[in-house]
Amino acid sequence: MDATALFKFSSGLYVVSARADDGDVGACVINTGLQLTSKPLQVAVVVNKQNHTEQVIEKAGHFALAPLTQTADMPFVGRFGFRSSTDFDKFEGIQSDMTGNGDPYPTEHVAAMVSCKVVQSLDVGTHMLFVGELDDARNLLAEEPLTYAYYHAVLKGKTPPKASSYVPE
What is the pTM assigned to this prediction? Predict the structure, then answer.
């Protein structure tokens, strides 16, 4: 089997974030975020169970999802994708805002933001799939979304082992 066939699937890069009632904040880059339905408006995100953000989403019961734009550079992607929320404040020193649910999200290098309440979750092995029903949505920047193909080809980014699309060599 050639699992690299999955590299042909189109996807983007997103920051998913949440803040629990106890003040615990998690944020990370994911490459599995998609609209599921239009009535009701629902999206799905897939987050590695080893990521602190996954635990925060479970506690909070809501999350923000923000698709990155092609203006995002590797230091910005690395801030959210290659550091842990347990020991690094990913929002310190960058432009950000809060959803009505209290979830922070970056406002630079993101095309839009959707705020969601978790309506279902599914354990899919190494990851959790969260289905969120939208309670708010905003367009932020009129820039091209950052696709995973662009991330690999232009930014020369790598797929980390915790990514849902990671395939060991």
Answer: 0.90
- What does the domain layout of the chain look like in residue ranges? 12-153
CATH superfamily, region 12-153: Electron Transport, Fmn-binding Protein; Chain A (2.30.110.10)
Q: How far is CA 90 from each of CA 5, 50, 53, 131, rounded to the nearest angstrom?
A: 33, 17, 12, 24
Closest CA to 13 of 120, 137, 155, 125: 155
For the residues of 94-133, what is the DSSP string, one character each?
Answer: S-EEE-TTS-EEE-SSBSEEEEEEEEEEEE-SSEEEEEEE
Query: Residue 156 pairs with which residues in a beta bridge?
Result: none
Mean pLDDT for all residues in the chain: 90
Half-sphere CA count of 52, side-chain side, radius 13 A: 18
Element (H, E) at 67: strand 62-67
